[in-house]
Amino acid sequence: MSPTFGLYLPQVRRDFGELAELAEAAEHVGFDSVWFMDHLTLPGVAGGALEGWTVATAVAVRTSTIRIGHLVLCDAFRHPFLLARMAVTLDRISGGRLNLGLGWGSSPSELSTLGFTGDPPAVRLARLAETIDILEAVMGGSPVDHQGRFHTIRDPLGGPAALQRPIPLYLGGTGSGTLELARSRATWWNCWAPERHRLRELIPLAGGVRVSANYSIALSPRTDVPDWVLTGTSEELARQLRADRELGVEHFVIQPVDPVLRASDLLRFMEEVVPTVVSD
User: Fold this and answer.
1) Can you list the positions of beta strands (E) in 148-264?
2) Rounded distance between C-alpha atoms, residue 104 and residue 175, angstroms
3) Domain span at residue 139?
4) Measured between alpha carbons, how far apart are the two ends of the chain, in Å?
5) Are the CB atoms for 106 and 135 separated by under 8 Å?
6) Does the reported pTM lie above 0.85?
């Protein structure tokens, strides 16, 4: 199966108009998916961020074929029944284009300072596992009679089901508990950009689940970027991505780090980099 490509557009320092235009451009040049983040504050970034689910819903209305998701939604931000009904609604609005990315929260300071939770990682991981149980029932339209460690939900009538059966579930994170949960419950496991150098080690731990990975990429060669940012000529970028395809990555989610991102940059990536990565 040929690999696919996504565009990661964290909604900071861009207004909605720019986000929507870039998503439309990505769809036009052949990207399979567009992804947003799920943070409300970021260390060192003034002004916060636009809320990710609202942005994704608005982009769904402005597009027609590109898949839409988040890498990844923070479980602690939303009650699981509400999240499930939101997912069903967006899946229907988009005509079955939702990718549901989920994690237990990568920024403890954000969770605690904004008043969501001060629970340690092990508790948040356990809560995430319970959330997945609830999501599966609600997104399928089934009645829910759930008594768990964190949630009690009684919904005897059920509700509307998602168009997709099931909605693809992406779990993000590199800890052993997250990888174990991905092996048993997810459609995809996603590796974030700073850890992609560990793909050879981590992919076997994800078992048979499909693998996506994030890549921070400088589309023009640069020397002023961290060592986990890919940079170089189009041929060099293609060679690095091709090596990860051979390790098992099937979906490549790129985040250009260039100061200005234009539709022409996305087209150049699809024309100059992608053909080498997908060639057999």
Assistant:
1) 152-155, 169-172, 188-191, 210-218, 230-231, 249-256
2) 11
3) 4-278
4) 10
5) no
6) yes
48-73 burial, b if ≥16 CB within 10 A, otherwise e?
ebbebbebbbbbbeebeebbbbbbbb
β pairing state of 144-147 and 152-155: antiparallel
Tell me the CATH number at 205: 3.20.20.30
| Residues paired with residue 101 on neighbouring β-strands, in sequence order | 170
CA 232 vs CA 122, 219, 255: distances in Å: 39, 7, 15
Confidence (pLDDT) at 103: 96
pLDDT given for residue 69 in this prediction: 98
**pLDDT at residue 11 tops 90:** yes
| Helix-then-strand count for the chain, H and E | 10, 12
Instruction: Identify whether the C-beta of residue 51 lies closer than 8 Å to the C-beta of residue 77.
Output: no
CA distance 128 to 280: 38
**171 forms bridges with which residues in the sheet?**
102, 189
| Number of domains into which the chain is organized | 1
pLDDT in tens, 223-248: 889 999 999 999 999 999 999 999 99
pLDDT digits (tens, 9 = 90+) for 16-51: 999 999 999 999 999 999 999 999 998 778 888 999
